């Protein structure tokens, strides 16, 4: 195990101080944006919620397309017609 | 390297603290009687212990600083991503709209499929009839698997040269073992049949529901029809 020099310690202290400053700056920015949008979530909660929504969208889209295909097969028509009948667009513009 | 080695090998030094270790004292005394500078040797050992303490403390400090760096980096990364999400909040609202759209498509699709399935079940003779047919098919499958596997296994064993080469007694023993296996398989089969029958009885008087259809179609009901 090699010894840790004092210069390594000083460098680490400096890096921690820089990271802390960066973190505080970002936290302020995040707080300000949250206040604008009237949100009271942590950064992690914002991320988790975003991922959960994307997952939900993907799963519902897969289910919807699969069901629309089944309906089209039953009706012997095109999927596009099924969507039109339902009042939705096939594409997510 | 132990302390004694260090004392023996230490070239010079003045001892400032007395040793608590008796063995160490003895080593130091022995060293005194042999050499001209015993106190210097003791100090060298003190310095080494102090050095090691200092090195340990430095390492602990370094590890703590590294931990703090990793923690800040992780939180900075989370904040950057969260800020990006909040800055384009209209994207988030768009995702919510799309979730709503595809939920609507899925619900409409499920409704159509349920109606269509109910019509087919009606033509077939009702939900109970559908279940009865499914149970029969399941039983046939189990029956086929059991008889087929066992029959093949037994025939293969009895016709093998190894089996023929066995004594009458041994052949009889094997036959009994195989019969035991057949019995066990029969019990398993009856158990599975009983489970199917129970399922059938529990479904009596019921109708095909949206939940049941979702399950059969391997779709998550609660996702399409949330509370």
UniProtKB/TrEMBL annotation, chain A:
Coiled coil: 9-36
UniProt KW RNA-binding keyword: no
UniProt source species: Torulaspora globosa
Alphabetically ordered keywords of this record: Coiled coil, DNA damage, DNA repair
Alphabetical list of Gene3D superfamilies matching this protein: 1.20.5.170
Signal peptide: none
Protein name: Uncharacterized protein
Keyword ATP-binding annotated: no
From TrEMBL, chain B:
Gene3D superfamilies recorded: 6.10.140.1020
GO biological process assignments: DNA repair
Keywords of this entry: Coiled coil, DNA damage, DNA repair, Nucleus
Coiled-coil boundaries: 62-92
Gene Ontology CC terms: nucleus
InterPro entries: SFR1/Mei5
Keyword Ligase: no
Family annotation (Pfam families): Mei5
Compartment(s) where it occurs, according to its Swiss-Prot or TrEMBL record: Nucleus
Domain of life: Eukaryota
Region (Disordered), start-end ranges: 1-49
Similarity field: Belongs to the SFR1/MEI5 family.
Full protein name: Meiosis protein 5
Organism: Torulaspora globosa
């Amino acid at each position: 195990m090699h010894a840790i020099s004092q210069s390594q310690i000083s460098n680490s202290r400096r890096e921690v101080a820089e990271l802390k400053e960066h973190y505080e700056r970002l936290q302020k920015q995040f707080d300000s944006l949250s206040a604008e949008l009237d949100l009271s979530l942590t950064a992690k909660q914002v991320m988790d919620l975003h991922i959960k929504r994307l997952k939900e969208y993907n799963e519902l889209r897969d289910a919807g397309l699969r069901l629309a295909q089944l309906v089209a097969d039953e009706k012997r028509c095109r999927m596009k017609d099924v969507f039109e009948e339902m009042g939705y667009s096939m594409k997510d513009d | 390297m132990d302390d004694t080695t260090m004392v023996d090998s230490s070239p010079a030094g003045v001892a400032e603290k007395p040793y608590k270790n008796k063995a160490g004292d003895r080593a130091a005394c022995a060293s005194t009687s042999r050499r001209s500078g015993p106190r210097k040797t003791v100090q060298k050992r003190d310095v080494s212990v102090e050095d090691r303490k200092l090195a340990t403390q430095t390492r602990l400090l370094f590890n703590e600083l590294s931990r703090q760096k990793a923690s800040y980096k992780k939180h900075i990364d989370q904040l950057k991503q969260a800020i990006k999400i909040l800055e384009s909040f209209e994207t988030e609202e768009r995702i919510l709209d799309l979730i709503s759209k595809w939920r609507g498509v899925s619900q409409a699709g499920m409704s159509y499929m349920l109606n269509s399935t109910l019509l087919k079940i009606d033509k077939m003779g009702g939900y109970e009839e559908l279940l009865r047919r499914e149970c029969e098919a399941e039983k046939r499958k189990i029956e086929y698997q059991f008889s087929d596997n066992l029959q093949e296994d037994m025939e293969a064993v009895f016709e093998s040269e190894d089996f023929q080469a066995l004594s009458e007694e041994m052949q009889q023993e094997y036959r009994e073992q195989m019969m035991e296996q057949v019995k066990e398989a029969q019990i398993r089969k009856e158990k599975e049949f009983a489970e199917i029958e129970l399922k059938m009885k529990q479904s009596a008087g019921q109708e095909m529901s949206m939940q049941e259809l979702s399950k059969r179609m391997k779709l998550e009901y609660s996702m399409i029809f949330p509370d």
